[in-house]
Amino acid sequence: MLFVGNSFTFWNRGLWRHMEELTEARGEDMGAKTSRVIRGGASLRVLWERTKAKEEIAEGGYDVVVLQGDIPETTVEDFHEHAAIFDAHTREAGSRLIFFMTWSYERLNWISMDEIIAEHKRMARALDAEVAPCGYAWQRAMAERPEVDFYSRDREHQSWYGTILNLYVIYSTVYGERPEALEYAPPERSEITAEEDAWLRRVAWDSYQSWQDEMREGPE
Predict the structure, then answer these.
(1) Which domain range does residue 203 map to?
(2) I need a surface site. Which of 3, 86, 198, 200 has the fewest CB within 10 A?
(3) What is the reported pTM?
(4) Distance (Å, rounded) from C-alpha 14 to C-alpha 7?
(5) How many domains does the chain have?
C-alpha cells in the first residue's frame, strides 16, 4: 500500500505506520506493507510534478495507492484535472487508487467542508473512483460529539482523534470491513480512551457505508 500526500498524511507519525500496526491484527500474512511519497503543503499538482509519486506508482507494483488531495491548497479545477491524471496513471499501473478526502481549515478558508465533500462526489462520479471519506466522517463525528476536537493547535492539521478516525475510514474503504473487530489500540500518547476508540471505529464504518449509499444514489 502506497500513501501519497502532504503533511496530512505524515502528521502524528504517519498514516502508513499506523496502517501497518492496525492491519497486523488481521492475522499472519494478512497485514499491509506500506510505503509513502510525501511533500509538505503539496496539492495533487505538486505531488504529480515535484515528487517521485508517478514513478513510484508506475514501478512499485502496489495493490493500493492512497492519494491525499488538499483542495484548499489549490483550486477546484486543478484538483479535478490532477485527480484525473493520477487516476489514469494508477489504472495503467494496475493498482487500485483510493482518494483520501481531507477537510476544511482556518488558514485557507475559501472553501467549506460541504463544498469539499461535493467536489469529491463530483470527481468520484466522473472517474468512477473510490474515495476514503475522511472529511465526511469528521463532519459526522463533530456533529455527534462537538466537544471532541479533531484539529491540532494550528487549527489545520489533525489531532490524534482526527488521525485515528482517518485510519479507520481508510481501512474500511480498502478492506470493506468493520474496524471494530481488530485487536488494536491507538498509541498511548493519543490519550484516546477505549470508549472513544470504539466510537471512532463505529463512526468510520457508518461514514463509509453512508458514503457508499450516497454514491449509489447518483447526483442530487
Answers:
(1) 2-217
(2) 198
(3) 0.97
(4) 9
(5) 1
